[in-house]
Amino acid sequence: MKKPSPIIRFMLRTALFALIVGCLLGAGEWAVRRYVPNPYRTKAERMEHGPMPRSIVLGNSHSYYGVRPDMLPAPAVSLANVSQPLAYDLELLRHYEALGRLDSLRFIVAQVSFTSLFDKDFEDTPEWYRCINYKLYMGLDRHPALSRYGFELARPSVYGAKLKSLAGIGEAALLCDSLGFGLGYTRERRGEAWASNGADIAAYHNAGADTTRVAANIAVLDSIVAIGRRHGAMTLLFTQPEWTTYRSAADPAKLALMQRSMKDFTATHGVTWLDLYDDPRFGADDFYDADHLNTDGATRLTRLLAERIRAEEAAATSPKQQPQVPTQ
């Protein structure tokens, strides 16, 4: 029997090698999706199979680590995720509204940070890979399945880190509790130089803040409030506290633009905005780093939010004062 030519043998070996590599990568993809702890999946399962929420928390890492759903009117769940822009807050609300999971909704707690009104499209940022989580684990149909947003493999460094965590090597995966509150930002775990990164973080936020995006993000907030009102839900907006090293380096003009835009928005829409940016009630013991609260600070912040919710709920349900008719 005639042996295959060298070219054919090379092609067969190459194909076999590619098949082996493909099988290994596929097995890794499957293992990461199935076995690595995943806050996005936790939130999705809670929304789809748990009790329909009365309270929903939205926002980025400031909400993920800073607002405790267990202190809000129950059932409650946090849909906040690291770096999540306002546009994805809205996408999640629309997604679960379409699934009929907002019928019991009464309270939306939505965070608007210094950067929120300047957010670009998630896909156009260095953290585009986080969009993969919404496609794979939360069921958002924003991107095609056969795209870079449809595979953990699309971001090799993150994929590799998850494989390592699965093997017990390196840091553990991002974790949250059963209600979607981010774990790990405790005062005991923060570094000794926790405040020193404030200027660097603020400089990064200053550089990435696109002032041309304000109108688009205000429109997103408008849609979030509208969804709440369709379901008879109150929307409470808040801006989280920042430590002094962050505040001293934040661009004052951009901060003023954000605050002015929020004041105009709340006046127009009749919603409450708690601006806690430099609130003196939050001290050093409340922070994990210059830009995030720790679990103690989260308790303090959520208590303030819950108090405002109770006050506004009481005001909304109390009988209106009838004008007195003068007697003859």
Give structural notes.
- With 328 residues, this protein is an alpha/beta fold.
- The protein is built from eleven helices and seven strands.
- The strands form two sheets. Strands 2-1-3-4-5 form a five-stranded parallel sheet, with helices on both faces. Strands 6-7 form a two-stranded antiparallel sheet.
- Strand 6 and strand 7 form a beta hairpin.
- Helix 1 packs across helix 6.
- The radius of gyration is 24 Å and the shape is globular.
- The relative contact order is 0.14.
- The mean pLDDT is 92.
Short structural description:
This protein has 328 residues and is an alpha/beta fold. 45% of the residues lie in helices and 8% in strands.
Specify the structural class.
alpha/beta
N-to-C order of helices and strands:
HHEHEHEHHHHEHHEEEH
Instruction: Write out the strand line-up for the largest beta sheet, numbering strands in chain order.
Output: 2-1-3-4-5
Molecular shape:
globular
- Tell me the major beta sheet: 5 strands, parallel
Count every beta strand, where a strand is a DSSP E run of 2 or more residues: 7
List the helices and strands and how they pair.
Layout: H1 6-35, H2 39-49, E1 55-58, H3 61-64, E2 76-78, H4 86-98, E3 107-111, H5 131-137, H6 156-166, H7 198-208, H8 214-230, E4 234-239, H9 244-247, H10 252-269, E5 272-275, E6 287-289, E7 292-293, H11 295-317
Parallel strand pairs: 1-2, 1-3, 3-4, 4-5
Antiparallel strand pairs: 6-7
Helix pairs in contact: 1-6, 4-8, 8-10
